[in-house]
Design a protein that fits this description.
The protein has 282 residues and is mostly beta strands. Helices cover 6% and strands 49% of the residues. It contains two helices and 22 strands. The longest helix has 9 residues.
Length: 282
C-alpha cells in the first residue's frame, strides 16, 4: 500500500512542503486554473490538546467518526484485518464486523443511521446498519480514500486533486470540487475527511498536515501542523513512527457536535487525541 500510494503522490510534478504563515502547505506541479487566484492565503491553525485516549487494541485507522458517545472506526489490513470497530472514550476497542484480508478498508461515515465504508482499490462501498450488519453494496469506479457527509450527500476523496459529492443510494457523482490554494499546482493526497460547520478537514497522506477547505470553492483556508502530537506520545510510539513512518502516519479526524471536540489519531497509533482547532500559529 505504501509504495503504490507514495508513487501516486510523487508522480505529480513534485510534491513540495513549504512553511506558509507558520504551517505546512503542500502543492505540486503547474496548474492552468485561473480561478486559483481567488483563494486567499490560508491561516495557520493550532490544535490545542485537551486529553489523550489510549486504545486497548491497535488498528490501521482509515476512517473515524463520533456517534452516540463513542468512536466508530474503519481499519485497513496492514498489521491486521479490515474491520469496523467502536472505541469508547476510555479507549476500549470492540469489533463489530471483521472482513478479514479480502478487501482493504478505507474511509467511514454515518448518514441517516447507516454506516458507509469505502475500500481502497476493490471499488466496493459497504453500507451497514449501526450494528455493522451489512445491508447493501455500491460500486465506486475510483479508489476510495477519505469519506464524510453533509447530511445529504456522501463526500469522498480518491487521493487525487479533487473530492466528490455522491448520491448515498447509488454512489453516482453529483459534484466534483478541485482542491485549490494560492499556489500553482495540483494538491494531492487528501485522505481522511471530516465536514465540520461548513468546512472540510482532511489530512494530507504521509505528512503531519491537516488542511481546512471551503467546499464551495475548493480553497484551502487553513493549515494545521500536527507535529506537536508526537511530543505527547510514548517512546514506543515515537520509535514506531521513526522506523516505519509510511504506515504509522497521521490519519483519522472525528468531530463531536455535542461538545465541539475533535478527535485525531493515526494508523496503528495507540493514542487518540481530543482537542480543538484554533486560528493562529504556535
Amino acid at each position: 500500500m505504501l509504495t503504490r500510494r507514495t508513487g501516486l503522490l510523487l508522480g505529480t510534478a513534485a510534491l513540495v512542503i513549504a512553511v506558509a504563515t507558520g504551517a505546512f502547505f503542500l502543492w505540486g506541479g503547474p496548474d492552468t486554473l485561473n480561478a486559483q487566484t481567488s483563494c486567499r492565503e490560508p491561516v495557520p491553525l493550532r490544535f490545542e490538546i485537551a486529553s489523550k485516549i489510549e486504545r486497548s487494541e491497535l488498528g490501521f485507522t482509515q476512517g473515524l467518526e463520533v456517534r452516540d458517545g463513542q468512536l466508530y472506526e474503519s481499519t485497513g489490513r496492514i498489521g491486521g484485518t479490515t474491520r469496523i470497530n467502536v472505541i469508547s472514550f476510555d479507549g476500549q476497542v470492540r469489533t463489530l464486523t471483521d472482513l478479514g484480508t479480502t478487501v482493504f478498508g478505507e474511509g467511514l461515515t454515518i448518514l441517516n443511521d447507516q454506516i458507509y465504508q469505502l475500500t481502497w482499490q476493490e471499488h466496493q462501498v459497504y453500507v451497514y446498519d449501526l450494528a455493522a450488519k451489512r445491508q447493501r453494496v455500491m460500486r465506486n469506479p475510483r479508489e476510495g480514500w477519505g469519506l464524510t457527509n453533509d447530511g445529504t450527500n456522501l463526500i469522498f476523496s480518491d487521493g487525487g486533486p479533487s473530492f466528490f459529492y455522491v448520491d448515498p443510494q447509488s454512489f453516482a457523482v453529483r459534484r466534483t470540487v478541485k482542491v485549490r490554494s494560492t499556489r500553482p499546482g495540483d494538491i494531492v493526497g487528501l485522505n481522511e475527511l471530516e465536514l465540520v460547520r461548513g468546512r472540510l478537514y482532511g489530512n494530507i497522506f504521509t505528512t503531519w498536515s491537516i488542511v481546512r477547505i471551503d467546499p464551495a470553492s475548493g480553497c484551502i483556508d487553513g493549515v494545521a501542523d500536527m507535529r506537536g502530537l508526537r511530543d505527547r506520545m510514548s517512546a514506543e510510539e515515537k520509535s514506531l513512527i521513526d522506523l516505519d513512518s509510511g504506515n504509522y502516519v497521521l490519519n483519522g479526524i472525528a468531530y463531536d457536535n455535542a461538545t465541539g471536540t475533535f478527535y485525531v489519531t493515526g494508523k496503528r497509533w495507540k493514542s487518540i487525541f481530543s482537542g480543538r482547532f484554533v486560528e493562529g500559529g504556535r
